[in-house]
Amino acid sequence: MAYVDLSNGSSLSVLAAILSQEGIRPGQELSEAGIEELKEKSELLAAEKRGISLLARSQHSAQGLKLKLYQRGFSESAISRVIEGLEKSGLVDDRAYCESWLYSRLKRHPEGRSALIAGLRKRGINRELAEDVVQEIVTPEVEEECARRVIEKLKGSASVSNSKMISRLSSRGFSSRLIRAALE
After folding, report:
1. What pTM value is reported for the model?
2. Which domain holds residue 58?
3. Residues 116 and 85 reside in one and the same domain
């Protein structure tokens, strides 16, 4: 960050890259519009850098990334422009995020369709996309296998009654029909 001292005695914090890119030199006069433009460009570049940094650590949904950028103090305008650019470049892709999250979730914490859809919704994925991707990935066979894995885990931990198993499976989003089939 570079600090630009303004003639009115105030200062402006601007990314040095923006000053260089715009060719701003010490003593140069700037109009109010020019100052606002510098602020906007600097914020946009900072938000883009932060967004890319967050994506380098882990995949995010568009909504999840928006929230993190908002929490870091960026304006809604800058966030929208950054997300739009990241979506166009393919760095933010909600469908790919859904698929990745589902495969990971099913592997380490098997759940039924309704719980998986709720998990995606909680992460900012719209209902239609969440339902579509769950429908594609969580076939009836996959869901049944997940229920069986939960049952095996419950059986291995202690003597658990059928009613307790039914309750646990239900709380993990498995349908009553699937629970009955998996317990037979």
Report:
1. 0.77
2. 2-89
3. no
